[in-house]
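Good morning C.,

I know you're traveling, so I'll keep this short. The sequence:
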Amino acid sequence: MNRLTLAEVEAVARAAHEGQQDKAGRPYAEHLAAVAEGVRTRGGDPEQIAAAWLHDSVEDAALTREWLATAALTPRTKAVVDALTKRPGEEPEAYARRILATPGALLVKQADLAHNADPRRLAVLDEPTRKRLTEKYTRMRALLGLEPEH
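The tokens, ready to paste straight into the viewer:
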């Protein structure tokens, strides 16, 4: 089976999230691009970069679990995307355990958290939202055993 190239994965992710915005009102694809670049700069491989592009697609219902199961992606990329997809009602501890148990997933989540917690992104949010998200990201970093990034 021919696998999707990184450019094709990027195009799928951008199309799937078309019209979506992040909490700051920015096009959601900017977040995906930042996470993919964060994975690349942290030494991630093409499978992890592909997973970065797709890391929120199933969780945000931009793509379905069925699409992921049949997509022309490596089993490792699919496993990382699945690991990063939060389940409804899932406790953060269970989510963190799944990420830690999935080869390649931690680096993608690290890049995701780094972009989500970027002070420039958080600065445009209202104070209660900024506080809630900062606490959420700090807790997840601790559950994953990640040092704070500067």
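Safe travels,
E.
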